[in-house]
């Protein structure tokens, strides 16, 4: 993440997003044009997706939602998890877990690792992204030490 008094830029590999005040539109356009003079880029307009996270904005209410519904549906399909329409009160079974007496083979171990990794991904990505996006408006508005705080978030 990079910031100055006019822009906050965050990226992952080849995905680049930048945030700016309406009053800094000209500076943002210059940034984009400068980047385009050095690299082949596509301006996709307003942020809708970033790192597989759907971004929903309500500018008039100054609200931002980060949604992982698409990722969750993909994982549910991948691992054949069928919901019968009855939601559990807790995300984990309430019955005691019974130890597996079998010796896990490579395929079973790999499947377990894929499932656990798939569950951990949204748990790790959303909090980091929320911290960056939550602090960005305060940093741009010059509220307290928002810019310094945002640097510490990454």
Describe this entry's structure for a reader.
Helix 3 runs antiparallel to helix 4. The C terminus is likely disordered. The protein is α+β, with helices and mostly antiparallel strands and 154 residues long. The strands form 2 sheets. The protein has a 3-stranded antiparallel beta sheet, sandwiched between helices. Strands 4-5-6 form a 3-stranded antiparallel beta sheet. The chain contains 4 helices and 6 strands. 44% of the residues lie in helices and 18% in strands.
How is the topology of this model organized?
Blueprint: E1 2-3, E2 7-12, E3 15-20, H1 25-38, E4 49-50, E5 53-58, E6 63-67, H2 69-78, H3 106-140, H4 146-153
Short descriptors:
single chain, 154 residues, alpha+beta, 3-stranded antiparallel beta sheet, 4 helices
By secondary-structure content and strand pairing, the structural class works out as: alpha+beta
Helical segment tally? 4
H-E string: EEEHEEEHHH
Lateral arrangement of strands in the main beta sheet: 1-2-3
Q: Based on Cα principal axes, name the global outline.
A: elongated
| Rg estimate, integer Å | 21 Å
The tally of strands reads: 6
Mean pLDDT: 76
State the share of residues found in helices, binned by percent. 40-55%
Low-pLDDT stretches are 143-154
Question: How is the biggest beta sheet arranged?
Answer: 3 strands, antiparallel
Q: What is the terminal-to-terminal distance?
A: 7 Å
